[in-house]
Every structure is written in C-alpha cells, then in structure tokens.
Amino acid sequence: MELKRTPFYSLIKEIGGKFVPFAGWEMPIKFTSDVEEHKWVRSEAGVFDVSHMGEITIKGKDALKQVNYLITNDASILKDGEILYTPMMNHNGGTVDDLLVYRVSEESFFLVVNASNIDKDYQWMVDNNIYDTTIENVSDFYAQLAVQGPKAEIITQQLFNENLSEIKFFNFKYLNFNGESILISRTGYTGEDGFEIYLSPKIAVEFWRELFSKGESLGLKPIGLAARDTLRLEKKMALYGHELSDTISPLEASLSWCVKMGKSEFVGKNYLLKQKESLSRKLVGIELVDKGVPRHQNEITLEDGTEIGFVTSGTMSPSLQKPIALALINSEYAKIGTEIWLKNNQKLKKGKVIKTPFL
Amino acid sequence: MAQVFDGYGYTKEHEWVKVEDGFAFIGITDYAQGELGEVVFAEFLKSEGDKIEKGDEFASLESTKSTSQVFSPVSGEVVAFNSKVEDDYEIINSDPFGDGWLIKIKLSDPSQIGQLMGATEYNDFLDTL
Fold first, then answer.
1. A346/B contact by beta carbon, under 8 A
2. What is the ipTM of this complex?
3. Facing B41 at nearest CB: one of A33, A230, A292
4. pLDDT (mean) for A245-267
5. To the nearest 10°, the Cα dihedral for A231, A235, A237, A241?
6. Domains of chain B: which residue ranges?
7. Any residues with CB less than 8 A from the CB of A121 and at least 6 apart, and which?
8. Substitution target from B64, B67, B87, B93 for chain A, most A beta carbons within 10 A
9. What is the fold of B9-110?
10. What chain A residue is nearest to B62 in terms of C-alpha separation?
11. What's the pLDDT tens digit per position in A1-26?
12. B56 at interface of A, judged by CB pairs closer than 8 A
C-alpha cells in the first residue's frame, strides 16, 4: 500500500526531516538527534507534525449519550469547549483505542483518535451507534500540529490576537488564522505545556511558515516522532499498541482515573466491574539496574526465569539518562521496590519496580 | 551524504571490515550510524576468545527508539572488543570508521574478505536505497 503524506511532507523533507513509515503514513522520525530534540522540548519548545492523527465527529440530539456509551470516562462533566482523555473499550475487556473527546456542544463532539486505528474506530462507533447519531470520519479535512514545551504559549501567541493564556489545560477554542477557522486546544503528548492545532490542509503550510517566522527566534524547532515517544514515555502516557490494546483493559493500564463506574451503561462496564474485584496484572514502571535498554515485548521474569509479564515500552530516558520501561506484570509483583529480571539481548538483567511517572 | 572510504570491505547490512596484519577490525558504516541515530547503549554479545561464524550476531547498538543487531561479516576468533565504545557510545556516531570500531577478529578464512563489497560497489549500493 502506498504511504500517505501529510501537507507538511515537502516542507519537512526540505529542512532535513528523516522519514519512516508509521501507521500507513510517511512521518518524520527525527531532524537532527532524537535525544537533543527530546531535551529541547523539555526546556524550550518544539513543533510536531501529527497530521496522521484521526478525527471523527459524532453529532445529533443524543450525541452526548452516544459518546458516553462508547467511552469509559464521563463526557457529561464537560462544558462546551472542554476536552477529556478516555479509553474506548470492546465487549471483551480490551481497548479499541484511547482518544480525546472535544465537546463542541451537547449535540456535537469532535473525537481525536490514533492514526493506526482510524478505520477500526470509525467502524466500531458506527456498529455501536445505539442512539442513531451522525458519525463521520473527517480525518482528511484536518492537518494537525502540536506545539509543545515551556515556551509553547509565548511562541503560539505570536500568531493570534486572542489571549492564549485564557485557554486552560484541556480546553479549546476556534480561532481565526488568515481568514480560516482553526481549532486550538491546550493538550499534548509530551507532559509539557502546549497546544494541539487542527487546521485545514489548505492553510497548513502557511501556518507552519508563519509559526517559524515568528517563533524560531524564540526557540522553536521541528521535532520528530522518536522524541515524541520518549517524551510521552517519561510521563507514563499510554501508547496504543503498547500499554493499551485489544487485549489490555484500561484498569490494567493504570487508567482507572478515566473509568467512571458510576455512570449508566457503557461498553465494557460489566467486564470492568468483575475485573475490578481482582486485577491480575498491572502496569508498572521499571528501572533497569543492569546495563541495557528495555524493549517492547522483552519478558519480565523472576530470578529463576519464571515469566511474570512483559515490557510494553522501554527506552534510555533522555532526561534521566537511565534505562526505563513500562511493563504489564502479575499484580503480586507490582509493589514499588520489587526486584524483577528482564530478558534482553539474550541475557537476564536485573531491574526494579519504581514510582511513575518517571519524570 | 554518508561517507565511504577505500580500504574497507562492506556488507549490505552496512558493516565494514578492515584487515591489518591478519586481524579483521569490524564496525558499522557512516550510513548505518546515521540511520540508527544517537547510540545510547552498546552491548557485546560475545566474549574474547569465542569462535565467531560469518553471520553471527556479536553486538547490539541501541538508540532511544530502536535496537540494531550487528553481524560478523567474517569467521574467526574474537581477539578484542573496543572498550572505548563502552565508555563513550557517541564515538560510534562521530567516528564510525575509526575510534568507533567494535570488534577485532583473528580470521579463520581470509578468503571471506574477497566476498565483501569495495568502496565503489558499496557507494552504488547506497544509491539504490
């Protein structure tokens, strides 16, 4: 299958972005050094092309009820202009995707889903559309940029007259850019302050150029998706296909804060009610004591090699300069300080369960 | 453009071999280090004195995002690992053909050297990627 390209492809190619195939897209993995880019976002500001992300709208009289039926978090607490993060479950205790839910109005919701899951999510929502709402996959109508880092606000502010400090964390607004309406939300996937900006592909390149013409001297740099992954991992933000999957429940993935058992029926509720009584595996943070870099699917074992779980994501943390991992392990070993072993590079390496987020 | 030098033998997996006094020094090419990105950890999977066969995995080079296995392009006995690399992984990026070498092997079958690509051939191969 031919890889899709975002509106920023040529521009990013020109400035030295290195591309890899990701979820059916040709995406910039890095520009110079993934480690330096990571640190830059922690201390200054960077922009990520995340146009591969999907957007789905749910509209109609019962849109709120429909959204709340599909997700584990509670959208009824949202006011217009507010956002929440939530898993969306299947009927078997697994997770279809994790997403952001934007409440435009009680009758209109804008959902942001993972690139690799767009078709699956859309089909799932349509198949479970019990309130007869209008569900549309509008992904092709949006490019997306994420401006992230301590200087994100001051840089993004240069493009708008409206005071961006009024957009609070997990809130959004529609603003005007060169005559086009764009959606700007104070959200992100790095653990830093910042914005995610959804805009028409038509004005995408123009927006990028203006952002850099005003922001470069303030410290803005383009950042690749490799750094995005290590940034989110240090902050223990889940990545679908790793911490969450069709066979991992939100409770197992430490997302009980996004599961609202008190609300009326939602997909997965019955399963979770049972699972809650005895959760057999848990997501924990691990620090490797021996030298090495933990990797997705490395086995976690006891000293005698008995398997107790597996790594969901691992890296050499650029901020902490030590090997860290998230791992799904048997609950009885989830206590902080527990010694565990990791099968990595044909060796058994010692590690321990530590507090998360790592940073 | 990735650097390629005369005097080295090359593989399609982007390892290089340089022969000096019957010993083969092996490392990864400039192209390979560029693809891998910043090396944040390097681990040798063999010990000094081990026999190694052509195609055996002998090192693992890690960036934040991925692991690259390095395979021996020749057979022989492991004489030494470059301990400098274990103290300062960055030299694999900054000097892949020099201080960033990985392993020294006493060749058991010197004819294997003739099967490697020369600089021109490797350059042509890079052009196809």
1. yes
2. 0.86
3. A292
4. 96
5. 60
6. 9-110
7. A54, A56, A88, A96, A97, A99, A111, A113, A114
8. B64
9. OB fold (Dihydrolipoamide Acetyltransferase, E2P) (2.40.50)
10. A293
11. 799 999 999 999 999 999 999 999 99
12. no
